[in-house]
Amino acid sequence: MSHDPPEHAPAPNLLAPGPPPHPLGAPLARREGREKAAGTARYAADHTPPGCAYAWPVPATVARGRITAVDTREALAQPGVLAVLTHENAPRLGTTDDATLALLQDDRVPHRGWYVALAVADTPEAARAAADAVHVEYATDRHDVLLTADHPGLYVPKEVFGGPGARERGDFDAAFAAAPTTVDVTYTMTPQHNHPMEPHAATAQWTDGHLTVHDSSQGATKVCEELAGLFTLGTDEITVLSEHVGGGFGSKGTPRPQVVLAAMAARYTGRPVKLALPRRQMATVVGHRTPTLQRVRLGAGPDGVLTALAHESVSHTSTIAEFVEQAAMPARMMYTSPNSRTVHRVAPLDVPTPSWMRAPGEAPGMYALESAMDELAVALGLDPVELRVRNDPATEPDSDRPFSSRHLIACLHRGAERFGWLPRDPRPGVRRHGDLLLGTGVAAATYPAFASASTAQAHADPDGGYRIRINATDIGTGARTVLAQIAAAALGAPEDRVHVDIGSSDLPPAVLAGGSSGTASWGWAVHKACTALLARLRAHDGPLPAEGLTVTEDTREETAEPSPYAQHAFGAVFAEVQADTRTGEVRVRRLLGQYAAGRILNSRTARSQFIGGMTMGLGMALMEGSAVDPEFGDFTACDLAAYHLPCCADVLDVEAHWLDEDDPHLNPMGSKGIGEIGIVGTAAAIGNALWHATGARLRDLPLTPDKVLTALLT
To answer: Which of 431, 539, 572, 582 lies 20 to 30 Å from 657 when distance is taken between CA atoms?
Structure first.
């Protein structure tokens, strides 16, 4: 772990207003670390109120159709069973914009795995046995679950996250036809699943009309608002608690079935109810990364400067809700491209609804773009680092806005120096160690810098202590610790004098933890509240009243204003791999990431996020993959036995470095999100390194041994 100033960096912009600056960036240990290590941190399923019952869901066994009959007699006759909820007797729900939460409301089955019943019993074992004893009959319809590039149902959505579904600048067709050197390639990815270690779980209890829920969620405010609409309540009649969350990766970014079903069952039975989704069911009900088919076309002159760029992405969505993986979005801002075409096409199929997963859009999109850039570098006979440097734009190509900061070139140069990129023999397949072929690869990374409106409360006690209250969520990234550091810096107080309350919808509302925007959004509100509190303290005469002083501030006005700058984090990932010519196994020998992500607020937690992201990118490249069974319409890899994830033994040597980047146009802390940029670029760097090792260009993720061995033997 290290950090360096960017080339030609301006002087650091210290927090203001306030007293002499309190240093940010210190490697403070996570405040909840001891609790987690000791096993005393309590997650959603760890809360067991007196009289708690347990629920187990019943998934549909057909790919598409309608329920014609439900027989619950055998289930209800079993010992300890309290109820079986179906569409015939479940509580009626209010309206919702999220169709995946309209559970047990009618007889339709939009996809296999859709929940058709819920068994509730005194014990988890009894609930599971009751669920197995529920007999459901269906009238089936023809189903369509396979995505193809020429699917007749494909359409271009009007909007995707971040912009229009399609965008064209200049005359791509003419520029591509005239380009001396061109690349026209297609990259494919199978479905991928989030699989957090903590399953999606909720414990719900009604007390005198008030609903209290412990939920595994990335945002208790959003869950509270959704439950209010579904159960026709005010948000003040609901308390959602998400004190500790064991990973989410996007799958817990919006409310999921467990919280709705638990609340329904608790209302129906009059008892607290706990529901932890079985892992084998999670792939179908908590979102997934859609498979993508991406065609990238690049045209360049003899100098390597791009004259034409097209990125077209095809993905699937469900028939009940539209979700589009915005994979072509990065191509609109990453490189010089006077003639550009970026298009998203989506096909509604009889599949579960996809959703956010680990750097959505950028992760698959940059895999395709950065792999194509490597292929263009080979075609031009140009070093891949140099090709990216030559196409670094002065302003964002799609909007012509200036970048608030862009140090991609510094990341490429600094990373190459640290990695030992040069001297490098560009010829593929020439480095060999016995049966192993060795190679190196590089890819750039980017992720948008977001911030959303949040509200924070800062309180000063007469004894000199401070309390910060905000409904932020710590999904394992150290939010409690970093927010305390931000508050301490703004107040000019020791960090250990600051207490932070998060993870409850009864606290001031805040945006969910997602899109690498949590710290920027919450920290901005915390800084504003602390700055206002400091002003009140300075204006106050005499000792503080016994109840202390409290200030509440929000950032609605600041975040509502569109920025005149394009705001993104950047990075460069370097990889060295080995490919076994006997087995096709690919091992990553070294990974090095060099990032420019604004001010790093805690070097210890930041390093953890960077290397965690790179490890996820490694999984994306080499092992994470699933498929939709065309006959039954379900996912073939639905548990951790079939869906492979990287472990420590798969990451032999991983380094994370960053620049001390000053960006005064972001927020008072000068920070950008870092939770997801480590994922972006890693898969492409590994794929490019595999080509350099073997001379075989594989364009279908994951790069499993069977694919590699077939390529080596061809």
So the answer is: 431
DSSP for 232-291, written as a single string: T--GGGEEEE-S-----TTTTSS--HHHHHHHHHHHHHSS-EEEE--HHHHHHHS--BPP
Tell me what pLDDT residue 343 has.
98
Return the closest-CA partner of residue 231 out of 87, 95, 52. 95
**Rounded CA separation 113/109 (Å):** 9
Q: Which of 198, 325, 396, 676 is catalytic?
A: 676
Helix (H), strand (E) counts: the chain? 16, 28
Beta bridge partners of 310: 297, 341
- The 10 Å Cβ neighbour count of residue 203 is 28
- pLDDT value at residue 10: 37
State the Cα–Cα distance between residues 324 and 345, nearest whole angstrom. 8
Smallest Cα–Cα separation from 376: which of 303, 299, 310? 299
Per the annotation, the verdict on 676 as an active-site residue is: yes
What pLDDT, on a 0 to 100 scale, did the predictor assign at position 14? 33
Phi and psi, residue 441, nearest 5°: -150, 160
CA 436 to chain centroid, in Å, comes to 34
Sheet holding 2-4, edge to edge: 2-4, 654-659, 586-596, 568-580, 436-448, 431-433
pLDDT of residue 643: 96
Say what the pLDDT of residue 1 is: 55
Helices (H), 77-144: 124-132
3-state secondary structure of 685: helix
Given a contact cutoff of 8 angstroms between Cβ atoms, the answer to whether 242 and 215 are in contact is yes
Closest CA to 186 of 38, 297, 305: 297
Give the Å distances, CA to CA, from 220 to 40, 213, 260, 507.
21, 10, 13, 10
- Which positions of the chain have pLDDT values less than 70? 1-23
Pairing of β 2-4 and β 65-71: unpaired
Joined together, the tokens standing for residue 550 give 């409290």
Using CA atoms, how far apart are residues 275 and 231, in angstroms rounded to an integer? 18
Rounded to whole angstroms, the Cα distance separating 617 from 676 reads 10
Distance in angstroms (rounded) separating the CA atoms of residues 430 and 194: 37
Task: Please give the pLDDT value at position 6.
Answer: 57
Model confidence, pTM: 0.96
3-state secondary structure of 557: helix
**Per-residue model confidence (pLDDT) at position 22:** 56
Which of helix, strand or coil describes residue 448? strand
Radius of gyration for the alpha carbons in the chain, expressed in angstroms and rounded: 26
DSSP state letters, 170-181: S-HHHHHHH-SE
Q: Say if residues 319 and 633 touch (Cβ distance below 8 Å).
A: no
Q: In what order do the strands lie in the sheet with 700-701?
A: 166-169, 340-349, 306-318, 292-300, 181-189, 700-701
Residue owning tokens 């200049």: 170
185-194: per-residue pLDDT in tens? 999 999 999 9
